[in-house]
Amino acid sequence: MRKRVLESIEKKLLKKRDQLLETIEAEEENEREGVESENITGDIVDEANSSYEQLVISRLTEKEQEKLNEIDEALSRLNEGMYGRCVVCGKSIDEKRLLAIPEAKKCIECKAAEEKRRY
Ligand SMILES: [Zn+2]
Questions:
Q1: What's the CA-to-centroid distance between 82 and ligand 1, angstroms?
Q2: What is the whole-number distance in angstroms between the Cα of residue 116 and the centre of ligand 1?
Q3: pLDDT average, residue stretch 46-75
Q4: Domain boundaries defined on the chain
Q5: Residue 45, by phi and psi: left (phi above 0), alpha (psi -120 to 50) or beta?
Q6: 58 vs 109: CA distance, rounded Å
Q7: What does the pLDDT read at residue 37?
Q8: Portion of the chain with pLDDT greater than 70, in percent
Q9: Could you give the count of Cα atoms lying within 13 Å of 93 in the half-sphere of its Cβ?
Q10: The domain 3-118: what is its CATH number?
């Protein structure tokens, strides 16, 4: 893969990483604030409702953590010069696919096969 393409992919990954970290931090902040306001207005807030909200928030964060891991993995593959290869079949992943989803680690065929298995 061309160096220029790799560099722009690395930039994209780093930017995505920053945004994710910001989102995760903001959500954790919300969660803390939620707990605090719950203490103040304890008897007004419906308890079942608020714990459901917390569950949704922590699930959202979990998903973002997962994404963050994928981005970190992609960045370390970039550093090792392994970037752009499908982890399943070892073929080069289409450049357009990588530019659209820079953290992709499977080629489109393997991804499609995986989704077929899942559903
Ligand atoms: Zn593959």
A1: 14
A2: 14
A3: 81
A4: 3-118
A5: beta
A6: 32
A7: 62
A8: 87
A9: 24
A10: 1.20.120.910
